[in-house]
Amino acid sequence: MQAWRVHRNGEPSEVMRLEETDRPTPGDGQVLIEVLAANVNFPDALLCRGQYQVRPPLPFTPGVEICGRTPDGRRVLATPALPDGGLAEYVVADEAALLPAPEALDDAEAAALHIGYQTGWFGLHRRAHLRAGETLLVHAAAGGVGSAAVQLGKAAGATVIGVVGGPEKAEAASELGCDLVVDRRSENIVAAVKEATGGRGADVVYDPVGGDAYAASVKCIAFEGRVIVVGFASGVIPSPALNHALVKNYSIAGLHWGLYNAQDPAAVRACHDELTRLSAQGVIKPLISERVPLAGAAAAVQRVADGTSTGRIVVLPAGAAR
User: Fold this and answer.
1) Which of 75, 81, 203, 225 satisfies CB 3.0 to 4.6 Å to 101 for a cystine?
2) pLDDT at 133 over 90
3) What is the pLDDT of residue 280?
4) What is the DSSP-derived secondary structure letter of residue 71?
5) pLDDT, position 319
6) Does residue 17 register a pLDDT over 80?
């Protein structure tokens, strides 16, 4: 089969190589899956750089989530077992962790429903306890992770303020349903949020960016607000001033979805049932900006790494028609 392999750490476009290799062999409790679609995630770039919390042995194949077909014909969502990731024609995954692909979504959309939307749902509902009528501030609102949070926030009845970088992404965030879009390149985030909320600030902040995004967030957080730390796409990990959290009476909560997958798989399945219901109703639908063939995977991962992509880029190993 064909698979993208990383033999040394570095930038994705420099270290990813498309090679012929053997199909992975399932172990106990695992199943071989034909990859129908592989969603590109920022962690794929971090894996290439050797900066992710999981460091598979070299060489490895990136790709942390797929929609695929099992030997018995089921269409499923899976997180492939590294070092044999999803940017390949076949993967192996734990049978017990497979989730049925929602019928309302095609292969590319289904592949993008998994980690990003699970992260958004657990972040907003389990960690932030978002309530209808509250104001949700989403950073990188037109990106893969942020776009999921925007849709889930609207589904929960929140007023959603999306922060983006540039007019193209502002248009995408608006189409996703943001009530207000703030272009960080030309507008002051803190002033815009305070004006939109009558000085109260955002009740919940969803931050996959870190750095300046986090610094702005805590300047416009509401009384008893909650900041959900999802990641650090900016490359800068903030050092929270806990005296500031004390004086302004807000909470800072981390969200690592993989721990739910390991510690509470029943909650992950319940979340998937809810996401499937919402997708069937048309309330949520992954924003797919590009569908590329397997040969275009390295360039796709690099675009996500550089922050130039909008929504999700999905790799279709059998061709870009699905």
Assistant:
1) 75
2) yes
3) 97
4) T
5) 56
6) yes
Nearest to 184 by CA among 156, 158, 214, 157: 214
Q: How far apart (Å, rounded) are the C-alpha atoms in residues 88 and 83?
A: 12
pLDDT of residue 322: 41
List all residues 6 or more positions away from 286 whose beta carbon is below 8 Å from its beta carbon.
Answer: 105, 108, 109, 112, 113, 116, 117, 147, 148, 311, 312
- Which tokens sit at 320? 């870009």
User: 231 to each of 25, 31, 84, 139, 209, how far by Cα in Å?
Assistant: 32, 30, 24, 11, 6
β-pair partners for 34: 69, 90
Is residue 210 over pLDDT 70?
Answer: yes
Residue 321 has pLDDT above 50, yes or no: no
Q: Which two tokens stand for residue 13?
A: 């476009």
Residues 6+ apart with CB under 8 A from 6: 15, 16, 17, 47, 48, 58, 59, 60, 61, 62
Q: How many angstroms separate the CA atoms of 124 and 228, rounded?
A: 8
Q: Does 307 score more than 90 pLDDT?
A: no
Q: 235 and 173 in contact (C-beta within 8 Å)?
A: no
How far apart are alpha carbons 205 and 318 in whole angstroms? 39
On whether the CB atoms of residues 204 and 130 are closer than 8 A, the answer is yes
99 Cβ partners below 8 Å, 6+ apart?
Answer: 76, 77, 78, 114, 269, 272
For 264, counting Cβ atoms within 10 Å of its Cβ (0-12 exposed, 13-18 middle, 19+ buried), the class is: middle
Predicted local distance difference test score (pLDDT) of residue 318: 78
